[in-house]
Amino acid sequence: MMKPVVLFVDDEPHLLHGLRRNLRSMRDRWDMHFAEGGREALVRTDQGRIDVIISDMRMPGMDGAELLSAIADRQPRTIRFVLSGQTEESDAFRLIGISHQFHSKPCETETLIAAIDRTLQFRDAVSDETLQTRVSSLQRLPCSQANFDALIAETGVSDPSAERLAAIVASDMALAARFLQIAGSGYFGVGDFEPTFTQAIGMLGVERIARIASNEDMFLRLPSSESGGGRLDRLVQHGVVCSQAARAVAVAAESDPESIEAATVAGLLHDIGYLALSDGSDRASDGSDIGGYGQERRSLGSERSEYGSDHAAVGAYLAALWGLSEAVVKAIAHHHAPSAYAGRPFAALTAVHAAECIIEARFRPAENRSAVDRMDRDYLAAAGVQDRVAGWVSQLSTSRFAEQAP
Ligand SMILES: [Fe+2]
Ligand SMILES: [Fe+2]
């Protein structure tokens, strides 16, 4: 396999020098290039493939936002990161959408290496390059018009409530993914943190949320179909129910607080790959093609033969690219077959997998398989929780969300 090409761009020669020195150990694994400013970076880009670009923001001539947008035009498959010091608020807004992650200077070399490595690892799990490009080009994820309207309405009232905003964001995968990306990355201060919905809202604040939402390039708003819910509505509702169920399982399993939060986020976002498979274009505006999600859902095998990858791998790449937490990314990647995951079993994945099986058994009884039958028993045994599954099933079967159709 060819080494990934990683291009670092900064107008300060001593900074590039420092990066070159600190990253020496990566020479065997990455083909690294260092460009002193935007022009030089574009010359390098025209010479061949760039897998990852890491650019400073403030540079004379062409700044980071201009450079990344030129790169997005020339090589839309490129992973675009910013590595910058303190950024003006207006510059941060320009970088949202055009960059996938924002890392604040000074940044530990280990942190930067881990971020690049992890993104490449989940990109490469999507074998089809066209699909990789679709994910890295995605700007407008489809969200439900009703959720979007509720968000805008709440930001406009005289005393907006962070709790209500968090609840709205927690009920829509496109809103959640975008706000978690922006809050968890360093666009507006603290970077590299793994916010809950409430923390993301608190960190961004009402004004920024309203400003981000008002950017036409952020969300593709899909009206609910008059017949009472198109495929997007069903997909979004499925995420919401799964999020509540995964949280309940994580709580019942006495997971630590971070794992409970990760299970809640991963439950909502586990099928986000369908949004990317739908390619986020207006093709989805009538709800007719959300990547095949709907009553006649495909098998993962048929997704792979049509798209060259399945929604779990695609969703995990999107989440990794946007810098969501490791636990969330892995839970998305392995939610259908957790025993294929080679690492130690972990709570968020266990919770999402169990929750989904319980929900599917409840809402798709026609398939005539019990929740336990649907579960990956090898994985649950490895996680040491097989004795507790029956308890979760009975607990969740009486829960409130069981009344809502996904
Ligand atoms: Fe699902
Ligand atoms: Fe799924």
Molecular structure report:
The chain is of the alpha/beta class and 406 residues long. It folds into two domains: 5-124, Rossmann fold (3-Layer(aba) Sandwich), CATH 3.40.50.2300; 148-406, Hypothetical protein af1432 (Orthogonal Bundle), CATH 1.10.3210.10. The chain has helices spanning 13-22, 38-47, 64-74, 89-95, 109-124, 129-137, 145-156, 162-169, 173-184, 197-214, 231-252, 257-269, 273-277, 300-307, 311-321, 326-333, 347-363, 371-374, 377-382, 389-397, and strands at 5-9, 31-35, 52-55, 79-84, 101-104, 141-144, 219-222. The radius of gyration is 21 Å and the shape is globular. Residues 280-292 have low confidence and may be disordered. One fe (ii) ion binds at residues 270-271, 311-312, 335-336.
Q: How do the strands and helices of this protein lay out in sequence?
A:
Elements: E1 5-9, H1 13-22, E2 31-35, H2 38-47, E3 52-55, H3 64-74, E4 79-84, H4 89-95, E5 101-104, H5 109-124, H6 129-137, E6 141-144, H7 145-156, H8 162-169, H9 173-184, H10 197-214, E7 219-222, H11 231-252, H12 257-269, H13 273-277, H14 300-307, H15 311-321, H16 326-333, H17 347-363, H18 371-374, H19 377-382, H20 389-397
Parallel strand pairs: 1-2, 1-3, 3-4, 4-5, 6-7
Helix pairs in contact: 2-3, 5-15, 6-15, 7-8, 7-10, 8-10, 9-10, 11-12, 11-17, 12-16, 12-17, 15-16, 16-17, 17-20
The protein binds fe (ii) ion (FE2) (2 copies).
